[in-house]
Write a structure and sequence with these properties.
- The complex is a heterodimer.
- By secondary structure, chain A is mainly alpha-helical.
- Chain A has a single domain, classed as MetI-like fold (Orthogonal Bundle).
- Chain A is 70% helix and 0% strand.
- In chain A, helix 4 packs antiparallel against helix 10 and helix 8 crosses helix 9.
- Chain A is flat, with a radius of gyration of 26 Å.
- Chain A starts with a helix and ends in an 11-residue tail after the last helix.
- The C terminus of chain A is likely disordered.
- By secondary structure, chain B is of the alpha+beta class.
- Chain B folds into two domains: 226 residues, Rossmann fold (3-Layer(aba) Sandwich), CATH 3.40.50; 113 residues, OB fold (Dihydrolipoamide Acetyltransferase, E2P).
- Chain B is built from nine helices and 20 strands.
- In chain B, the strands form four sheets. Chain B has a six-stranded mixed beta sheet, sandwiched between helices.
- In chain B, strand 7, helix 5 and strand 8 form a beta-alpha-beta unit.
- Chain B is elongated and about 75 Å long.
- The chains are: A mainly alpha, B alpha+beta.
- Chains A and B meet through helix 8 and helix 9 of A and strand 6, helix 2 and helix 4 of B.
- The structure holds adenosine-5'-triphosphate (ATP) and magnesium ion.
- The site of adenosine-5'-triphosphate has 12 residues of chain B, from helix 1.
Chain lengths: 296, 361
């Protein structure tokens, strides 16, 4: 009796499936599973290989499996892996902080103030963005020699931070400006009447509202140095100064030093700081704070 | 605090003309001054100049005799309620209300006391720890008011604070606001485009149009002696009836020559210079008296009846199609398409010069 009733009632919000639609649905599921497989399979191989003690230079699929921390040990003992981690984190944190600081000012200024050359400079920033960083290498060298002549303690790592932050500031200024544009200027006015100066308006009112956006910008600027292997390998001379990506790259870029499982192990460890930061910022990333500011 | 505007004007960057200009105005201490005008006439601009949020292009602004043109908004001792409420979304209601006091480094206990006091007055105690996004529009509006009153500022500025509320709540808040103003003993400046709000709340109305002040005065003055045709048409509901015509032998003759009005002696004196000239005559709907008379009489056909209970509005037509609105007590019996006789109360006539649109009598 009850079963019959259940069968007779169609409770889904969507119209019932026709046979053709059932087939299409099945196909899309198959495609999705294939896609997941394509992504997860190599990842699984990386995880497996990094713990496989029976592999040496190359990652081979199949063969014997012997669980060990051999490759991790190799990284820490034979290679300056810890140094790379520290280098990368220092550079990443410095980049993120510098980017946040500057983008806060530029984004706010471009959104709230009308000044001469506002449009032109915005356009210029956008156009410069289209030139790949790599092309700038020659300019970077010249710049570095100029700056280090003026400031003796200016290291190559600091220079790397400047390059990363410079790129980040340009592109993120747009994003933050757009976000601040969507906040009613009456909030600024209200804050001004309540006793805020220009800087306080940003710090006490605008910044808390754009926090999700700032968290994303921080995250992206932080991740950047983890992913880029090319610039550090050109700008930093000493392998001791290398960042993770560049350091790990030395493990696979020529056959004499080839050590693929260790590369996989390093890759795994690289993900850790990013994941930690992501978890730490999760609360900030939740947006929707701005709703309810002005009439609903 | 007495507020004085001397020949104030504002020209926005990139605009060709002044948005408002030659504004001379004096707002006395404890006045409830309503700045009234149609949308886009520059009311908000004027208010923002008083608040210091927009720069003053020309002229001088004085607060209690002190020139304020270049004083920062935070140093002007003002509180403001914005059209969109502008509550800080990341703060609770309590923090929103406490913010201005915190910025002024008040003691914690003083802040707490003032916030609770204001919350009680506005009946928002229950929501003190909610975020603005979690409360209704009407409650947000109260919070915005609360945020302004905790300051106990000398000048209280409001920019259409009631425009987002429903009719019932608006009516209620009108009274509340006036009460609030009286209990705070501040000088209030209130911007609106709603003439009802102006008439019911103001001690002084400033009517703006096209960047100029059209008239300043008490609500009664606005109703009984509108300074020009624009004011006459803007103030009062239903809108004043305006008839075009000319003066002939000291009498007002409508332009279709379908009726003649004999003004009272005082008006006739004032109308003398307009003999033969074009003049507009205004009369409010309640100044029509039902019944036949041998002078100043009209005969019209009732077109539409709006029954309001205590009175009814008769939208009538003259034989030549000209329209007028007449209000009569609700218990009189009228029906659509009936013809009726009315005569005009000559005490309630307004005469305007057609050329300058200025008031004559
Ligand atoms: N920042 C600005 N830059 C240029 N022009 C402006 C600016 N703000 C307002 N204006 C212009 O000034 C005029 C008056 O604007 P204002 O906001 O004072 O009108 P208002 O009387 O408050 O209207 P409403 O009742 O619709 O709020 C408008 O024509 C508007 O286009
Ligand atoms: Mg306005």
């Amino acid at each position: 009796m009850i079963k019959q009733k259940k069968k007779g009632l169609y409770l889904s919000d969507r119209p019932p499936l026709t046979p053709l639609k059932t087939i299409l649905l099945a196909i899309s599921y198959i495609l999705l599973f294939a896609y997941v497989f394509v992504i997860l399979w190599p990842l699984a191989q990386i995880v497996l290989s990094s713990f496989n003690g029976s592999q040496s230079q190359y990652i081979r699929i199949g063969g014997t499996y012997q669980f060990s921390f051999k490759h991790f040990k190799f990284l820490f003992e034979e290679k300056p892996f810890l140094k790379w981690v520290i280098n990368t984190i220092v550079i990443a944190v410095a980049t993120a902080l510098l980017t946040l600081l500057f983008v806060s000012f530029t984004g706010y200024a471009y959104s709230r103030y009308r000044f001469k050359g506002r449009k032109a400079s915005l356009m210029a920033i956008m156009l410069i963005q289209t030139i790949p960083t790599f092309v700038g290498i020659a300019a970077f060298y010249t710049l570095h020699s100029i700056i280090s002549a003026a400031i003796p303690g200016f290291s190559r790592q600091m220079f790397l931070v400047l390059i990363y932050a410079g790129g980040g500031i340009a592109s993120n200024t747009f994003i933050l400006k757009g976000y601040i544009d969507s906040i009613s200027t009456e909030l600024d006015d209200a804050a001004r009447i309540d006793g805020c100066g220009n800087f306080q308006v940003y710090r006490l009112i605008i910044m808390p509202i754009v926090r999700p956006m700032l968290a994303i910008i921080a995250l992206w600027s932080f991740i950047g140095p983890f992913l880029d292997y090319m610039l550090p390998s050109i700008i930093l001379g000493d392998p001791e100064q290398y960042t993770l990506a560049t350091g790990l790259y030395t493990l696979i870029n020529d056959s004499r030093n080839m050590h693929q499982p260790a590369f996989a192990a390093g890759g795994l460890l690289t993900a850790l700081p990013i994941v930690i930061l992501f978890i730490a910022l999760q609360k900030q990333l939740v947006s929707g704070l701005a709703s309810g500011a002005v009439k609903g | 605090m007495k507020i004085q505007l001397n020949n104030i004007g504002k020209k926005y960057e990139g605009r060709e003309n002044f948005t408002i200009r030659n504004i001379d105005l004096e707002i006395d201490d404890k006045d409830f001054c309503v700045i009234l005008g149609p949308s886009g006439c520059g009311k908000s601009t004027l208010l923002r100049m008083i608040a210091g949020l927009t720069s003053i292009t020309e002229g001088d602004l004085f607060f209690g005799g002190k020139r304020m043109n270049s004083v920062e908004p935070k140093d002007r001792d003002i509180a403001m309620v914005f059209q969109s409420y502008a509550l800080y979304p990341h703060m609770t209601v309590y923090e929103n209300m406490a913010f201005s006091l915190k910025m002024r480094k008040e003691r914690k206990s003083v802040i707490h006391e003032r916030v609770l006091e204001a919350a009680e007055l506005l009946q928002i105690t229950e929501y003190l720890y909610s975020k603005p996004s979690e409360i209704s529009g009407g409650q947000r509006q109260r919070v915005a008011l609360g945020r302004a009153i905790v300051r106990k500022a000398d000048v209280f500025l409001m920019d259409e604070p009631l425009s987002n509320l429903d009719a019932k709540l608006r009516e209620h808040m009108r009274v509340e606001l006036v009460r609030l103003h009286q209990s705070l003993e501040t000088t209030s400046i209130y911007v609106t485009h709603d003439q009802t709000e102006a008439m019911t709340m103001a001690t002084k109305i400033v009517l703006l149009d096209q960047g100029k002040i059209q008239q300043v005065g008490s609500p009664t003055l606005f109703y009984e002696k509108p300074a020009n045709l624009f004011v006459a048409g803007f103030i009062g509901s239903p809108t004043m009836n305006i008839f075009r015509g000319k003066i002939k032998h000291g009498h007002f003759l409508s332009s279709e020559e379908d009726f003649v009005i004999e003004p009272k002696a005082k008006d006739r004196e004032l109308l003398k210079p307009f003999e033969g000239k074009k003049v507009a005559m205004g009369i409010r709907s309640e100044r029509f008296i039902a019944g036949k008379a041998d002078k100043n009489a009209i005969n019209v056909k009732v077109d539409v009846i709006e029954m309001l209970g205590k009175e009814q509005l008769l939208y009538c037509q003259f034989p030549n199609g000209k329209e007028c609105v007449i209000s009569e007590p609700g218990y009189f019996e009228y029906a659509v398409n009936e013809e009726h006789n009315f005569h005009l109360d000559i005490e309630g006539l307004h005469f305007f010069d057609e050329e300058t649109t200025e008031r004559i009598n």
